[in-house]
Specification:
Layout lengths: L5 E5 H8 L3 H16 L9 E3 L2 E8 L4 E9 L2 E9 H6 L4 E5 L6 E5 L31 H7 L6 H6 L3 H8 L4 H11 L4 H9 L13 H4 L7 E2 L3 H7 L12 H8 L6 E5 L5 H14 L9 E4 L3 H20 L2 E3 L2 H11 L7 E3 L4 H12 L6 H13 L6 H6 L11 H21 L1 E3 H16 L20 E4 L7 H10 L7 E4 L24 E4 L1 E2 L4 H10 L5 E2 L5 E2 L5 E2 L7 E5 L2 H14 L5 E8 L2 H13 L4 E5 L2 E2 L4 E6 L8 E6 L15 H4 L1 H19 L2 E10 L8 H4 L5
Parallel strand pairs: 1-5, 9-15, 9-16, 10-11, 10-14, 12-13, 14-15, 17-20, 21-27, 22-25, 22-26, 23-25, 26-27
Antiparallel strand pairs: 1-8, 2-3, 3-4, 4-5, 6-7, 18-19, 23-24
Helix pairs in contact: 2-10, 7-8, 11-12, 12-13, 14-19, 15-16, 19-20, 21-25
Length: about 725
């Protein structure tokens, strides 16, 4: 018996298996098990197709055959599962090759697009339609090949004349061909497609078009190497992201980095998926043990809980047991508690700090300083930068703070913050920002015990808390958080891996990572393909971001150039009302048109808590089951979810209504007071409100409805507001 045969499954085969009924899926699972044990089993009927020694077929069941690519003596790749008629009646239909750009294996279905015109009878009185110009007539074959398009498909690509034909072809085309042609079809310039689509998946080494053994190991060859994918399909609990990554994503996941690395990208591009697979990749390389040398963290609690659930689905309890999964504030609180540095004080939310400063100024009779200005100076500069002395504060940079301060003013503020801190302690409270600052200082002091030569220090052998740290939604962390994390892991290869998008920053945390010891320059990548949102929704969401400049977490600018989707759907609907009462009527009318679904697939997003309570009461009066989206996410999975824009981070729905998108609500009216007195703060607050709307607009998978009462938000461009209604 031939034992130890390796059979891997290509992602396109997985797509075909997913379409089979349960019994046929089971037959595929049984086939793979038998093949690995003995591919020469007579019942499998393994044989070459059309005399080709590499492309082979084998019997799965009475009706289905497996197409296999023979890589080495005991290494096979399952590339397709087809009905027996398709396999044997058209032996020249399939082509396989190694892509000269990515180095990955591509198996191409060469079936013609659409119906053949051979034998079609055209009535004499019918005039033939004028010939359409081919879609890709502007590009030469060498240009398309340089972009990575599958060469066997070039004749068919040359004949494509409309979007319907393009979609038919791309349903069977390799991944890179699909990405490239859709980008060109959308009007992306050739050089931009080369930079944004092709270069990120280009192989790092020269490609040998005959070396299939090397090709099957490259990220561009998306494969599963075990039975877990098929077993999950049979249990109907399978998510394709658990097994198959886009080649760009897989390349980022498996790369070895010489230091901190960052992956950016717009909503739905798979940043969180990359973070989870990165954790799994690092965990699989750990030596045996029971410790938790990997930290996976993010900003808020519900996202941390979601990360734990998804990581468990991806890699199981054994690997998850080696990972510390905790949100950043709880991590800081744990550090402080270990050092017994917090006493018995109660932690209050940071959104209460402005009122606490107001109460302090009134109680102490201090005048001449605005409570909100002092709040921002204390939280962002003094606590955020972990400043321990007046001298440190005198030397500190104050980016994005607007108003300049002279030495005397800094001295006054430092004294005020010392008094305020003592006042808080007298109240028996402190804030999450203070906890983060204290934790950062404790960890920095602990890391300082490490001798430069690596020998034992007087305090014993220094051991960093973690070997690897992975951060999701990195744009929401403060400078103190970053200082704490930097001190928790020794600088070196694969120390910090960050994912995030500054266009989705919804908290006032602006940092320059290099100034905090996290140097990502030269190790920053970007994902551009959205898997969640349709092209139509995406186009309007990008309109919302028009005119803004966002940072890249390291002092540079970042944009959404090349951000795209392969999904199609209807255009979003934009609706106006004279009053909020009329707008509520529009919302209930919209829900009725959707059949009042109560399965958790629909959500209503509004800018304020009062509006959320109001629309929830109205819907409940109409008999609609309403579920509030709280700080830990929706309270139940069913019903119609209702919440403020802040609550929608990390969530997704089939359909979303964003209501109350009116001037004065989005952006908030209160920020207008900063327009003249503090222009930088005004711009920062306005950008944050725009990001909230952008996050909300990119939550739906299929349908988006945006409404307002009175004057629409200035973030809704005239092109959106004046779109004809249907």
């Amino acid at each position: 018996m031939n034992t130890g045969t390796n059979l891997r499954m290509l992602d396109r085969a997985d797509k075909e298996v997913m379409k089979l009924n349960r019994a046929d899926k089971g037959a595929v699972y049984e086939f793979m098990h038998k093949f690995r044990n003995n591919p020469e089993n007579p019942g499998l009927n393994l044989k070459p197709l059309n005399g080709d020694a590499r492309l082979m077929s084998a019997r799965v069941s009475k009706d289905y055959r497996a197409l296999l690519l023979h890589i080495t003596e005991r290494d096979y790749l399952l590339v397709a599962v087809k009905h027996r008629g398709e396999v044997y009646e058209d032996l020249d239909r399939y082509a396989y090759r190694i892509n000269r750009v990515t180095g990955g294996i591509e198996v191409v279905d060469l079936a013609p697009v659409g119906d053949s015109i051979v034998g079609r009878v055209v009535p004499p009185e019918t005039k033939p339609a004028p010939a359409k110009k081919p879609l890709f007539d502007a590009y030469t074959d060498p240009q398309l090949i340089d972009l990575g398009v599958a060469e066997p498909l070039l004749p068919q690509i040359r004949d494509l004349a409309d979007e319907t034909e393009l979609l038919q072809l791309l349903d069977r085309a390799p991944q890179l061909t699909t990405d490239v042609l859709f980008a060109l079809f959308d009007g992306v310039p050739y050089d931009d497609v080369l930079k944004q689509v092709t270069d990120p998946v280009r192989a790092d080494e020269p490609i040998d078009p005959e070396d299939f053994e090397a090709a099957v190991e490259r990220p561009a060859t998306q494969v599963s190497s075990d039975d877990e994918a098929l077993q999950a399909m049979l249990n109907e609990s399978f998510e394709r992201w658990q097994i198959f990554l886009h080649p760009t994503q897989r390349k980022l996941v498996e790369r070895r980095y010489n230091g901190p690395a960052r992956v950016g990208g717009g909503p739905g591009t798979g940043k969180t998926i990359v973070a989870l697979h990165r954790v799994a990749h690092l965990a699989r390389q750990l030596p045996p043990g029971t410790d938790k040398p990997i930290l996976l963290t993010t900003f808020n609690r519900n996202l941390a809980a979601d990360l734990r659930t998804r990581l468990m689905a991806l890699c199981g309890q054994e690997l998850v047991s080696r990972v510390d999964i905790v949100n950043i504030d709880r991590l800081a609180s744990r550090v402080v508690a270990e050092a017994k540095a917090g006493g018995t004080r109660r932690v209050v939310d940071d959104n209460r700090v402005p009122q606490l400063w107001t109460d302090f100024l009134v109680e102490t009779g201090v005048s001449g300083w605005d409570a909100e200005f002092l709040t921002a100076e204390w939280t962002q500069v003094i606590l955020g930068q972990v400043l321990n002395s007046r001298t440190d504060y005198f030397k500190a940079r104050r980016p994005n703070r607007g108003r300049t301060l002279n030495r005397a003013e800094r001295d006054q503020i430092w004294q005020l913050t010392e008094r305020f801190t003592s006042w808080l302690e007298g109240q028996g409270v402190w804030t999450w920002r203070q906890v983060a600052q204290r934790a950062a200082r404790l960890e920095m002091d602990r890391a300082a015990q490490q001798p430069a030569n690596g020998s034992e220090s007087s305090a014993g052998l220094y051991r960093p808390r973690y070997r690897h740290i992975v951060v999701d939604e990195a744009q929401d962390l403060s400078a103190a958080h970053w200082k704490m994390l930097r001190a928790m892991v020794a600088p070196g290869p694969d120390d910090l891996f960050l994912t995030g998008d500054t266009h989705q920053r919804i908290y006032d945390n602006h940092v320059t990572l290099s100034s905090l010891g996290v140097n990502i320059r030269g190790r920053s990548s970007r994902l551009t393909l959205s898997y969640r949102t349709t092209r139509q929704i995406l186009a309007d969401a990008l309109q919302i971001m028009t005119g803004e400049v966002y940072d890249d977490l390291d002092g540079g600018a970042e944009d959404l150039a090349g951000y795209r989707s392969l999904l199609r759907g209807g255009k979003p609907t934009f609706r106006s009302a004279a009053t909020w009462s009329e707008e509520r009527d529009l919302i209930t009318e919209q829900l009725r048109s959707w059949g009042n679904p109560a399965d958790g697939s629909v959500a209503i997003c509004v800018p304020t808590k009062d509006l959320a309570n109001d629309i929830a009461a109205r819907l409940e009066a109409e008999g609609v089951m309403v579920v509030e989206i709280g700080p830990d996410g929706p309270r139940r999975p069913d019903g119609v979810h209702v919440g403020t824009m802040h609550r929608f981070k990390g969530l997704e729905y089939q359909r979303v209504v964003i209501a109350g998108v009116s001037d004065g609500l989005v952006p908030r009216q209160m920020i207008s007071r900063y327009r003249d007195s503090d222009p930088k703060r005004y711009q920062r607050e306005r950008q944050r409100d725009r990001s909230l709307l952008f996050v909300a607009a990119t939550r739906p998978r299929d349908e988006l409805v945006v409404s307002w009462h009175g004057t629409p938000s200035p973030f809704l461009t005239s092109r959106l507001v004046q779109r004809p209604r249907t």
